[in-house]
Amino acid sequence: EIENFTIYDIVLPLPGYDIKYPENMKQYYKEELEKYGLTLDMTRQKVKMYTLCGNYRKILGHVKNVSWKILHYNDPTDNLIRSDFEELRGDPEPADVNGEEYFYFCFNCIGRADFNTLIFSMET
To answer: With contact defined as beta carbons under 8 Å apart, do 44 and 17 qualify?
Structure first.
C-alpha cells in the first residue's frame, strides 16, 4: 500500500487528548511530555483555554508560485519593498540601483500551518 503515499503525506502528532501516537514514537513523546509534567493521557479540561486537543502536522509541504528577485542598494535604510498601502495606491516598485550591496527576495505560497526555512549565503 506504500505506493499510494508520498513523503508529503507524512505527519507528526502534536500532543493532545484526541491524538493517536505511532507505536514507534510513543515512548519518545511520553518522555518529552514528562519533562513538562504532562502525560499522553491528557483529558479535556474544564477551562477550554487549557485543553490541548492536538493535531497532526505535515513534515513537508508543496511550495507554489515561487518567484524571486535581487535588488542592489547603497544605503541600508533604503526601502526595498512596497508597503501594503503603497501597493494599494499603485506606487511603483523600488528601482534596482547600481549599489554595492544586494538583497535577495523569495516569494511563494505555502499552506496555513507551514513556514519557510531559507538557507542563503552572503558574499562579502
So the answer is: yes
